[in-house]
Amino acid sequence: MDKRVASESGVSVETLSVSYGARTAVDAVSLAIPKGKITVLAGPNGCGKSTLLRAIRRLHPAKSGRVLLDGLETGRLREKEIAREIGLLGQSPSAPEDMRVEELVRLGRFPHQAMMQPWSAEDATAIEDAMFGTGIGHLRDRRLGSLSGGQLQRVWIAMVLAQETDVICLDEPVNHLDMAHQIDCLDLVSRLNRERGRTVVLVLHDLNLAARYADLLVFMKEGRIVEAGLPRDLMREDLIASVFGIQCRVIEDPVHERPLCIPMRNSSPRFRPVE
Amino acid sequence: MLVALPAGQGRLPLLYAALGLTLCLMLLGSLLLGYRIYSPAELWDALAGTGGEAGTVIREYRLPRAVVAPLVGAALGVSGVLVQTLSRNRIASPDTLGLNAGASLAVVAASAGLGISSLAGLSLAAAVGAFLTSVLVFAVAATAGGLSPLRIVLVGVTFAGLMNALVEVVLTVNEAELQQLLFWLAGAFVDRPLNLVARSLPLLAIGGVLAAMLARPLDALQTDDTTAQSLGAPIRLVRIASFIAVSLLTGASVAMAGPVGFVGLVVPHAARVLSGSRHSRQILVAALIGAIYATGADILARFVIFPTEAPVGAITAVVGAALLLVLLRRRAA
């Protein structure tokens, strides 16, 4: 499926800064995102993790610095070119309720089609493949409004999958889902990563889910990367306290053999109860 | 007419054929039915250039209507699809963008202020009014923060309200030509010479081609901005181009027939039910349904207060409201 020659580089971010007006949301961040792995960006609200994700897909212009994709500067790519390389699913994607599942998945083919070009066999294969891979084939004629939250999230992921990009960015994909569907969704993402070799970049709020699914975990605070590394190395009580402002105990999850954080009390002085 | 066919691949040619046939029947009806009802034989003679009085009536009065009505209906149907996708709002229509109000104001102002009373003059004023309004709405929406769908609707509704109020003011102050202007303001296909159509035709053609070219990006624009952008759709460019297409199509139709309400609101709903959410199909189906709807309404307008002609805009509004209620009930069920 991947037509490009394999390269070790993947996506790399070089001293990238992004600002909203006067406020700097991402401040001179450098990060190498390993190809074929799952990278998870984590950090407190407003730390710039979503902005970094969107800037990797060039949805926000860089104030300075650059993003390289297999050594190629993404700033030079045309809209459809970059959309064939990097897919992104936002925090709360929306589409008309009376749209049918297959119609939404088809939208993933948009960057592969010229203006008046007819639907190709390749397009058809890609959407069948995406629907099969996400297990939504039986839903194809259903209207989006009739789906459950978990089903809907699978449909959106299928749309991004149909885009056939090497890199897939998901911004808080499990935000609105219950526990069972959170695991279901992230298992799906991790399976797609393993079986299809897609590079995945996730923004996740839940630190334990982040530690469980990440190959590379990135902690951000105030627009900067505090530390990036293996979950085992990052899930330290002192580091979590300084990044997330919470005192915690880290134990090993006996099932997945990954670190598990048990939050105890807010360590930030702002939230200390008056004694 | 509105049988709920699922939008499967196989049924699509059938749908186009059914709509095409319905349109042909409507056109035939538009030529034959009216104050006098003619036979197909008389129509044949008339089209051959003979047929005496019947021939004259058909050629001079019925034929222009049978050309103007479907063109206006198709243009408004397509522009309704564009507006609803552009604004991500299913109750939006060219009226929502203030285009009809702008055209009305321009016509009333031209009549009261400049003393223009010829049909060609008023029709030019209408087109200019629609264009200026679209530029105004677009400029305000764009400068006040980035062309968001909600902002486009809010700005449009605001200007529509303002301009309609101004129309009332001018009409109240200037009662002399009230009767003629009121009829114009309700929209009508009566007494529109074919050269008026010829002048609007290029606008319709450009608007239609533009709409067809925008079909695929508009599919992507049905999603939120982040998704549409991630898919590689140049959303700003698509919005600007759609706006141009809408103002061309609406401007041309308002110049031909005045502000015919409700077509641009109802037709996209019917088109979506029949053809699904893909714009390549939706636009074509909306054009056909719009043509059928406007032609049908024009026939009906000849009979509801027989022998007097009712303004077609009133018919499209009444029928349209009923149709919309049925469609909304179907959606809810």
Automatic annotation (TrEMBL), chain A:
One of its GO terms (molecular function) is ATP binding. PROSITE patterns: ABC_TRANSPORTER_1, ABC_TRANSPORTER_2. Keywords: ATP-binding, Cell membrane, Ion transport, Iron, Iron transport, Membrane, Nucleotide-binding, Transport. Residues 11-247 form the ABC transporter domain. It is a peripheral membrane protein. It holds the Pfam family ABC_tran. One of its GO terms (biological process) is iron ion transport. GO terms for cellular component: plasma membrane. Gene3D superfamilies: P-loop containing nucleotide triphosphate hydrolases. InterPro entries: AAA+_ATPase (IPR003593), ABC_transporter-like_ATP-bd (IPR003439), ABC_transporter-like_CS (IPR017871), P-loop_NTPase (IPR027417), Siderophore_ABC-ATPase (IPR051535). It is found in: Cell membrane. PANTHER family: IRON(3+)-HYDROXAMATE IMPORT ATP-BINDING PROTEIN FHUC. Belongs to the ABC transporter superfamily. This is ABC transporter ATP-binding protein. The lineage of its organism: Bacteria, Pseudomonadati, Pseudomonadota, Alphaproteobacteria, Hyphomicrobiales.
From TrEMBL, chain B:
Gene3D superfamilies: ABC transporter involved in vitamin B12 uptake, BtuC (1.10.3470.10). The keyword Cytoplasm does not apply. Its main location: membrane. The keyword Cell membrane applies. One of its GO terms (biological process) is siderophore-iron import into cell. Belongs to the binding-protein-dependent transport system permease family. FecCD subfamily. PANTHER family: FE(3+) DICITRATE TRANSPORT SYSTEM PERMEASE PROTEIN FECC-RELATED, FERRIC ENTEROBACTIN TRANSPORT SYSTEM PERMEASE PROTEIN. This is Iron ABC transporter permease.
